[in-house]
Amino acid sequence: MSVLDKFFTGDKLALAKVISHIEDKGGQLPQLLPKLYAESGQAFRIGLTGPPGAGKSTLVDKLAIIYHDTDNSVGIIAVDPSSPFTGGALLGDRIRMQNLAQYDNVFIRSMATRGSSGGLAASTGEVAMAMDAYGQEIILIETVGVGQVELDIADSCDTTVVVLVPESGDSIQALKAGLMEIADIFVINKSDRPGADYIVSEINMILEGKRGKNDWDYPVIATQALNDVGLDDLYRQIDKHRQHLTSTDNARWHRRHKVETDLRRILGMELREYISKHLLTESALNIYIEHILNGESNPYQVVAEIIESLNQDKS
Ligand SMILES: Nc1nc2c(ncn2[C@@H]2O[C@H](COP(=O)(O)OP(=O)(O)O)[C@@H](O)[C@H]2O)c(=O)[nH]1
Ligand SMILES: [Mg+2]
């Protein structure tokens, strides 16, 4: 029996192997990915993003248990900035994995931000697809909401939850640009701390304009993940957003949007690979750089030449 056969019979080890193959950009991917795609599309993806220490992992774990208790299989992807020393996932995530391992239908995978972040964004989508094809009904994706890549991952989810804490109040203006735009639901976690009411009302103020233009009301929920406060409310709002997306008015638009996001992501990933393999190899890069340093060329000219050579390939 091949790994993929085992995968489709619900073998957890085969799922782990398939995910490793995706992460390692293994040679079977061109055959594998379309097969996974054909079997995916049923899972609901929930992204949780926000600053480090906001309580995302705690929230994800508690949500996972709620979903598990309501008879859903759950996949968790924790996209973590890797430690510069170990290059691997943070210790905390290993402990989490042990805690969640007792739940049969919960599968957790931690992905470290190794080197190129563009590659990470791409493979996170594929890992989610693998979990989806495997049959996990709910996929929770945790990312640190700092860079564009992390924002892209979050944005590719069905429902995006932005997690902030009372201490984020001062930096709310800075957060406005990226995080505020992708959020469907806001969580103010650690609301046991002072300043929670203040940040809730500040976010509500920022959201006023957005609410007027949309038929979704962007809820702001105060939680204490550690003390199990507000989690049911969060669960209900996620469910409400899911119903919103699948309503007759929105379902088609939402499916289209997912296909578009997939297309752009996959093309971006393949182009990046193609460029580094064929157009901007280490040796070509060195030659280009020398030419530019010698004043024989400039970056614009080099790029124009590369694009031109691409066009010639096609004719
Ligand atoms: N006071 C308080 N601490 C919390 C709460 N939720 C999580 N924490 C703690 O905050 C720390 C960071 O949590 P974690 O889930 O790892 O945050 P992440 O970096 O966003 O994933 C941990 O020590 C948690 O126990 C909360 O509601 N109140
Ligand atoms: Mg975390």
For this structure, the quaternary state is single chain
Order of helices and strands: HHHEHEHEHEHEHHEHEHHHH
Radius of gyration over C-alpha positions, nearest whole angstrom: 21 Å
Q: Helix- and strand-based class?
A: alpha/beta
Shape: globular
Number of helices: 14
Reading off the top of the CATH hierarchy, the class of the largest domain is best stated as Alpha Beta
- Kindly state the mean pLDDT as a whole number? 87
Q: What characteristics describe this protein?
A:
single chain; 315 residues; alpha/beta; Rossmann fold; globular; binds guanosine-5'-diphosphate; binds magnesium ion
Write the layout of secondary structure elements.
Layout: H1 3-8, H2 12-23, H3 29-39, E1 44-50, H4 56-69, E2 74-80, H5 91-100, E3 106-112, H6 117-134, E4 138-144, H7 148-155, E5 159-164, H8 172-176, H9 178-182, E6 185-188, H10 196-213, E7 220-222, H11 231-246, H12 251-279, H13 282-293, H14 299-314
Parallel strand pairs: 1-4, 1-5, 2-3, 2-4, 5-6, 6-7
Helix pairs in contact: 2-6, 3-6, 6-7, 6-12
The chain binds guanosine-5'-diphosphate (GDP) and magnesium ion.
Magnesium ion binds at residues 56-57, 142.
Description:
With 315 residues, this protein is α/β, with parallel strands linked by helices. The chain has two domains: 38-249, 3-Layer(aba) Sandwich (Rossmann fold), CATH 3.40.50.300; 280-314, no CATH class. Helix content is 57%, strand content 13%. The chain is built from 14 helices and seven strands. It has a seven-stranded parallel sheet, sandwiched between helices. The radius of gyration is 21 Å and the shape is globular. The N and C termini lie far apart (44 Å). The structure holds guanosine-5'-diphosphate and magnesium ion (MG). Residues 56-57, 142 line the site of magnesium ion (MG).
